[in-house]
Amino acid sequence: MKSFIRILRCVREYKIQSILSPLFIMGEVIIECLIPFITAKLIDNIEAGCDLSVIGKFGGLLVVMAVASLACGALAGYFCSIAACGFAKNLRHDLFYAVQNFSFSNIDRFSSSSLVTRLTTDVTNVQNSYMMIIRTAIRSPLMMVFSIVMTIKLSPSITLAFVSMVPFLIVGVIVIMGKAMPLFRVIFKRYDALNNSVQENVSGIRAVKSFVREEYENSKFKKASDAVCADFTKAEKLMAVAMPLIQGASYVVMIIVCFFGAKLIIRSGGTEFSVGSLSSILTYGMQVLMSLMMLSFIFVMVTMSLASANRICEVLEEEPTIQNCENPVMNVQNGSVDFENVCFAYSKEAEKNTLDNINIHIKSGETIGVIGGTGCGKTSLIQLISRLYDVTEGSVKVGGIDVKNYDIATLRDAVSVVLQKNVLFSGTIKENLRWGDKNASDDELVNACQLAQAEEFIEQMPEKYDTFIERGGSNVSGGQKQRLCIARALLKKPKILILDDSTSAVDTRTDALIRKAFKEEIPDTTKIIIAQRISSIQEADKIIVLDNGMVNAVGTHDELIKSNEIYREVFESQNKVGDLDA
Amino acid sequence: MPRPMGSPVGGMKTAAKKGTLKRLMKMLFAEYKWKLALVIFCIIISTVASTSASLFMNQLITKITAGVETGWQTAAVGISRLVIIMGCIYLSGVIASYIQAWTMASVTQGFLNSTRKKMFAKMEHLPIKYFDTHPHGDIMSYYTNDIDTLRQLVSQAIPSLMMSALTVIILVVYMFYLSIWMTLVVFFGVLLMTLAIKKVGGNSGKYFIRQQKALGKTEGYIEELMSGQKVVKIFNHEEESGKAFDKINEELYGEASKANSFANMLMPIMGNIGNILYVLVAFIGGVLILLPNVHNLSLSGQALGIATVVPFLGMTRQFTRNVSDSSQHFNHIIMALAGADRIFELMDEEPEVDDGYVTLVNAKEADGKIIECEERTGTWAWKHPHGDGSVTYTKLNGDVRMEHMDFGYKPEKIVLHDVTLYAEPGQKVAFVGATGAGKTTITNLINRFYDVADGKIRYDGININKIKKDDLRHSLGIVLQETNLFTGTVMENIRYGKLDATDEECIAAAKLANADDFITRLPEGYNTMLTSNGANLSQGQRQLLAIARAAVADPPVMILDEATSSIDTRTEAIVQKGMDALMKGRTVFVIAHRLSTIQNADVIMLLDHGRIIERGTHDDLIAEKGRYYQLYTGAFELE
Question: ipTM of the predicted structure?
Answer without folding.
Answer: 0.80
